[in-house]
Amino acid sequence: MRPRIVIVGAGFGGMAAVKALKRADADVTLIDRTNHHLFQPLLYQVATAALSPADIATASRVLLRRHANATVVMADVVSVDAEARYVRLADGRTINYDFLVLATGAAYSFFGHGEWANHAKVLKSLEDALSIRETLLAAFERAEQCNDPDEVRRLLTFVVVGGGPTGVELAGTIAELARTTLARDFRHIDPASARIILCEAGNHILGAFPGDLPDYAARALRSLGVEVRLGEAVSLVDAEGIVLADERIAAETVLWCAGTQARPAADWLEAEAARNGAIKVAADCSVPGRPGVFAIGDVASFDGGSGKPLPGLAPVAKQQGRYVGRLLAARIAGRAPPPPFRYRDLGTMAVIGRSRAVADFGSFQLKGFLAWLAWSMVHLMLLVDFRSRMMVYVNWSWAWFTYGRGARLLTGRGELPQRSQATEISSKDFG
Amino acid sequence: MRPRIVIVGAGFGGMAAVKALKRADADVTLIDRTNHHLFQPLLYQVATAALSPADIATASRVLLRRHANATVVMADVVSVDAEARYVRLADGRTINYDFLVLATGAAYSFFGHGEWANHAKVLKSLEDALSIRETLLAAFERAEQCNDPDEVRRLLTFVVVGGGPTGVELAGTIAELARTTLARDFRHIDPASARIILCEAGNHILGAFPGDLPDYAARALRSLGVEVRLGEAVSLVDAEGIVLADERIAAETVLWCAGTQARPAADWLEAEAARNGAIKVAADCSVPGRPGVFAIGDVASFDGGSGKPLPGLAPVAKQQGRYVGRLLAARIAGRAPPPPFRYRDLGTMAVIGRSRAVADFGSFQLKGFLAWLAWSMVHLMLLVDFRSRMMVYVNWSWAWFTYGRGARLLTGRGELPQRSQATEISSKDFG
């Protein structure tokens, strides 16, 4: 019988693993909750109405059409039996495996304040992105219809928590949305008066970047009109807004881009986990004591050598996926296994608004327009298929010249998203 | 004080009215439940994963940016006081008017069988389209995981009720989705074996088209693999499928494109209505006995001259909107009112799959590839803004050459859309 390889998660890691197994004499099953592979690095552009979901997501079946040994299953995995070697799906079915690759990724963590999740939005899935888009656009629509100045101010205050790349990208893009795209579209409010606050508990945003890039990024954000608040921790998130250090900030919209937590695959295996819940893996990405099981990407904690785990970045997941795919292909073919996994750091980037970015390529750094050009080209290149590349390129070109956002859609299921009575929209006489 | 003009509905009619009032010395308020103007004629392509919502919808504020006298309000109108001259919104606020233009459109009607709405999907809004897209794609995903042949057959049976343009367009496109786009993407099922049934109670599909166009359309659909059932009425729609004449057809997906019913604006006014609920209007589109009130588009019943009301088509709504806008502008400026409204029939078209269409231009007809070319060009031209035109063009070009559909997205809120226990997916051993 051909060995059965089950891969859980169709993100960068899982997809790379399936692809590396293309010619392996095995039955490969890719399980994911959704039917698509998502290009996460551009998800913030869906959340801010610049791109459509279909521009950055492609059906997994399409990507694996020519992978004759691969089967795609759209389902939720709820547990693993590492003894009997099967995974269990939410509907009770089980899928047996000889090799299991866990690539389930990470979710946002609220540092033990799970209740904050009721008031703060996160950005991981297409649904998250559409929900943020709806919240942002509805805030302006509701402010336009409101004649209580305090409430207008609260509606037009947008708080982004966490100064990593996603937080920086969101804050910069929201500022531009308010100051340019929406600027001339309302009659009662001035969207440009919106307050965008980026809160970072550390002393720098983009703390993982070297040299003066963090300071440059903070300056660039401030020039876009973002209030960058450093060194103060958020101590409360509730229906009214946040408390930052001791200051109460009334805000309708709170976006949470702070810590991440690996998805619960470590529990499934009862395996040793790092503090963020990621499974501690060996040098070949295998899970110690769980024969045939591997973990890659954000759900794995891989010792980078200096005692520091590798960061939760797309290239890490991709390279680990490819590595494990090749390792399994070699094992199945009876060839010698590859040497231990080594991460090849090709650089990291973060974009700040429509024309600036920072990029760290190890031996040299870029910032400003040149970094943004590099960022744009690299991301267009990395998109998985020709169609996405074309759609994103056309959208970007149009938006760059017009300052417009093509996906400003609120479907309005009968009414604008409403808040509790306490903050009900004041009546306004349009007469 | 400047006259206050309130326009309800941002469809073809309402938007045309606002635009015709651009230079009028009046305060114009456009009220809509959503924040966008939707290009309905291409909505079926969103429902079948060919286009994204943002490709055919544009924020009303963007379209009216340069209309200094226009205010956009995103809200639900629930009633009209034609005496005191105000409209009431769902949240209790009121908006006063001197002139009111009702352009609220129509919804689908189930001929007195409201309960069928629980099992059949309609196509009017972006949300409807996304819901149909999800249902279609999920049916194939669930069939792939199912090993009960009867249930697979039921999942892969798609019933479209109503042989008008929308029904024909949906049936043809679903057939192509199954036979080409999805054909190579599954391992356990053959999507090409899907059964697509178009039911029309009359003796012809596209009954409004002259000459041999209806017969040609039926032949064209059949060549795409659609079962065209004529002269039999649907007598039941339930969770299992439909009953057509006396035949029980088990189907997971039922799409309802049969009769339409005007939205309840006639009730708001207690005005005289036609059988489909549309407000009977005078020769200048005004509502008799309701001074200052006009009704246009699908919510109006306008005597076309021969005792037959004008059809519910986009051009009718557009021309009536422009007419009423100009009439009001003239009245406000103290100029002579225009002569009674006359519909200029520029022709009608319906498309059948990716390369064929029928078109009736009154003095001559087209069918086949040439009609499809005309259809494509006219619809690209009619899209309201440059961006939509560009996005649709790029999407179409890509799809035409690859047979692909770019928007094959299922977000999977935890699980596939599930049916009741009676039709639970059988367990399948993937081992």
Task: Give a written overview of the molecule.
- Two copies of one chain form a homodimer.
- With 431 residues, chain A is of the alpha/beta class.
- Chain A folds into two domains: 4-108 and 260-333, FAD/NAD(P)-binding domain (3-Layer(bba) Sandwich), CATH 3.50.50.60; 114-258, 3-Layer(bba) Sandwich (FAD/NAD(P)-binding domain), CATH 3.50.50.100.
- Chain A is 31% helix and 23% strand.
- Chain A has twelve helices and 25 strands.
- In chain A, the strands form eight sheets. Chain A has a five-stranded parallel β-sheet, with helices on one face. The first copy, chain A, has a five-stranded parallel β-sheet with strand order 11-18-12-13-14. A three-stranded antiparallel β-sheet of chain A has the order 6-7-8.
- In chain A, a hairpin with a 2-residue loop joins strand 15 (234-238) and strand 16.
- The longest helix of chain A has 20 residues, at 314-333.
- Chain A starts with a strand and ends in a 29-residue tail after the last helix.
- Residues 413-431 of chain A have low confidence and may be disordered.
**Class per helix and strand makeup of chain A:** alpha/beta
What is the architecture of the largest domain in chain A at the second tier of CATH? 3-Layer(bba) Sandwich
The count of strands of chain A amounts to 25
What is the name of the CATH superfamily of the largest domain in chain A? Answer: FAD/NAD(P)-binding domain
pLDDT averaged over residues of chain A: 92
CATH topology of the largest domain in chain A: FAD/NAD(P)-binding domain
Share of β-strand residues of chain A: 15-25%
